Amino acid sequence: MAHNFDVVIIGGGILGTSISYFLSHLNKSKKIVVIEQEHNVAFHTSGRNTGKVHAPYLYNPEKKKLFAKAAFHGFEMWEEYSKLRNLPFKKDGVIEVALDKKGNSVLEKYLKWGKQNGLEDKDIKLMNSAELKKIEPEIKCESALYVYKDGSTDYSIFTDSVMKDSEASGTKFILDTKVTKIKKENGKWKITLDGEYEIFAKFLINAAGGEAINIAHDARLAEKLTDVHFRGEYWRAPKEYNNLTKTSVYSVPEFPDYPFLDPHWIIRVDGSCEIGPNAVPVFSPYGYNKTENIKEFIPKMLEMLGSGARKAIFDKQFQELAMNEIQSSMSKSAMIDRVKRFLPKIDADRITEKGTAGIRSSVIDENGKFVPDVILIDDDTSFHILNYNSPGATGALPFASHIISHLNKNGLFQSEDLDAQCGPWKFSEIIEKLER
Fold first, then answer.
1. Is 62 helix (H, G, I), strand (E, B) or coil?
2. Higher pLDDT, 333 or 124
3. pLDDT category, 319, cuts 50, 70, 90?
4. Among 71, 190, 292, 383, which one is most buried in terms of CB atoms within 10 A?
5. Beta bridge partner(s), residue 274
């Protein structure tokens, strides 16, 4: 194995893999490596989500301008890429429902945001319950936002394909290998793999998802930030419910300042239907089972009590919401009842099979507040992406391009040809669209 690289990317999720894809097309002579601890890319959050290609109606155009633009252009880019590689992609839309008067005004705000973020009149429509009943007779609500420009895919398949294209362009992927130590030595990064092998890199990109905060801490950065993890669980609906609605249905979130989602009715790209996710607090980014959570309970609690997370976990509203989520994990009917509010036909007794669980990691600042946005940290020879959450998979291709453009502008890592053709896209044109 070669030991010296120009760039090491830690994390083979959809973002790390997308960064490697563009970097390898822009830097033909540079040696780039991606380290992923699992046996395939997109093993955790990137491959354990609903597979939605989100339209940017949920994102405040002032506060989340970059995420909104990434989602808007990400939709177009994934659609184009799916045609190029013959991958699953369905433009099937989504319906966001309001269950009370308060929710109506939230939908009006989402409609305004969606249009400010680039959606056209034909892409998004606000309806009253009678209008929606004509299209979706089973949905019960006060009002609904029908978003036609929303899609479904399988991000595991997408990430795997992007990895193959990145490899063909020169990137080396080292899978099934964990980064156990990083250290700056003589202006280079010495990275220990699996506690024994060492590789060296001039520049490090931390796209490690649930481990990103730990990697940043090892690099002596973001020391006042900590992360908390939430497991999102799903229930699979039986085939008899597959035609209950034509499209996925989300309800307006009751507590948008917290990472607790109101469960949705999801139609996946293969046509199967699921209910979920909840957001159960867990103690590890891999806390899918009791063993992992028990093992990490004490170290994680000590870390949280010694940081701003202490304020969050002693906050009464947070505790109440967390208990509701734990209850929804222990009781199937508690979770399904949330969806029955807008799909009353669903019978919890007919739903017996669990779906895939995924874990989302959220960052808490020193004041005990959940950080709503992505955190990008520059260092002279490293770059760290923290708190990269929804619509992370939708916007991964344009967001990866933005990161590379940012590194260039700041003189951190100079690419050889910013006009290069990267598969179906010209890199400079992606950046031009994002910066408009």
1. coil
2. 124
3. confident
4. 71
5. 236, 266
With CA atoms as reference, report the closest residue to 203 among 6, 407, 2, 414. 6
Q: How many CB atoms lie within 10 A of CB 217?
A: 14
| Contact by Cβ (8 Å): 163, 17 | yes
DSSP strands (E only) in 89-225? 89-90, 94-98, 124-128, 143-147, 151-153, 172-174, 179-185, 188-193, 197-206
Tokens of 358: 């995924």
Across 340-415, where does the E strand assignment appear?
353-354, 358-364, 375-379, 382-386
* Per-residue confidence band for 260, with pLDDT thresholds at 50, 70 and 90: low
Strand partners, 98: 143
Give SS3 for 203.
strand
| pLDDT at residue 259, rounded to an integer | 62
Burial class (CB in 10 A: 0-12, 13-18, 19+), 409: exposed
Cα 34 from Cα 16, distance rounded (Å)? 8
pTM equals 0.93
Residue 225, pLDDT score: 93
Q: Which comes out higher in pLDDT, residue 124 or 67?
A: 124
Residue whose structure tokens are 């990083």: 182
- Do you find a cis peptide bond into 299, omega within 30 degrees of 0? no
